[in-house]
Amino acid sequence: MWLLPPVPSLPPIRIPVNVMETPAESPVPANPLLWLEFAVPALSFGGALLAIVLLQAGVTLDSRFPSLGCVFASITLAYLAWLRPRKDIVALSTPIYSIIFFILPSESLPGIVLQLLYAMSLTLLQVRLKHRFGQTSAAAARTAELTGPLEEYAGRVRGLPAGMTPEAAHRAAIVFLRFSQGEYRSAAETAAAGASDGTAIGRACAIVAEQAAILDKPSPRQVAPRIFFFENRPFLAKSQSGENEDRIADAALDNALLLLFAAAWIGSEADRPRLLTGRAFAEKLLEST
Amino acid sequence: MKIGKVDIKVSLVAIAVFVIFTVLLIAASISSPEVRSQLIWLIPVLFMLLVVPIALNYMSRSQYAELKPEYKREAKTVRVKLINENMIGKIVRIEGVVERVHFQFLNRPQYTIGDRSGTISVKMFTSPDENIKVNDIVEVYGQVIRRYIVTGEPVINCVSISTLKKTPAKA
Predict the structure, then answer these.
(1) For the whole model, what pTM was predicted?
(2) Closest partner residue to B90 among A86, A182, A284, by Cβ?
(3) In terms of residue numbers, what domain contains A232?
(4) Residue B142 domain-assigned?
(5) Residue A1: what pLDDT?
(6) Domain residues for B88?
(7) What is the mean pLDDT of residues B85-111?
(8) A283 interfaces chain B, CB cutoff of 8 Å
(9) Do B81 and A284 touch (CB under 8 A)?
(10) Domain check: are B58 and B82 in the same one?
(11) From A250, which residue of chain B is nearest by alpha-carbon distance?
(12) Are residues B22 and B64 in the same domain?
């Protein structure tokens, strides 16, 4: 399929500034929850430190008071875990464990040792949460921008040929969202209305219309799949090759959905809040093999 | 064991609890005359340790049996990759290979099912009709839910899981 003589690459079309945002010019947003992330070790170790100081000073105090630092640190950690789209059940359950460990009064020295060990565990869980469970939903939504590979792909798609009307961009958003919701018949009908072979977007609509119609059937069977044309290649997120028809169809569908998402994001600013609900789906499609 | 048309499967944990308390009751009866005098209510309570799990299993399996035809009628066959948060509440059918099995002994099995597009967690809140093992090719009917009911990534709340005797149909 790639044996045809190469087609000269199409020149990028300048899209008005009020539609386009250049990722390089956007400032990197600060993490507004950074103070909470530092609060976890600060509160937990702070409580233990207070207990040590009081012990050194000879002050007799119920060990449960300094251990409140660990309890509040656990609640903070659980809150940070709650904000993330992927939930960490271990971090979410730390408040329960803090109550179990510290509800009963204990002697000064063993209580301090327990607080220090618990504080270390919370700090490790905080680091694990940050690195394994990604940024918070609030941080991602607050920027209302695409990030990572999806942002990079949207940058490539900005060079789509002219002729993408606001109506076409809105239709692209509708098709993508309905497909992501599993409303395959509705997605197929909407996509069919915009299907054509003249543009990359039209071709994407045709591919989605075909695949969504297949998925809507009780026993879907893949037929010879429709794929993108050679000249659409610069706008595709993935290679269209595959060892069998199913792989080729998968790749074509992924490319079509991603192209529709990116085109809708660029061409229909009003649809961006709704497209954000499908951003995770688009990222999953982009990262899948 | 069958009650009507419903095949009952009591979990190993329930059986183990019954056996342990039976042994304890026998030992206590032998060593203490006070316990022997209370056997008239201790023995029925002991059997409740088995009867209650059986009753709960019957109720859940008969409910799932009623749901199965409805799910088979309404389900859309999808690839794992296409399941996302926007599909929460949708009834789906997937085909794939069982990669992992957890908690089967608790009658609350969790499976990791993989097809060519990815893997997904499948949770079942009762015992399945068949004994599903790793590397089995299965078809699953279920509803897309959040992992922790109100939060978490999408998983499938399974109503029916059964082995396929042939290569899975390509969706």
Answers:
(1) 0.68
(2) A182
(3) 145-287
(4) yes
(5) 40
(6) 77-163
(7) 92
(8) no
(9) yes
(10) no
(11) B117
(12) yes
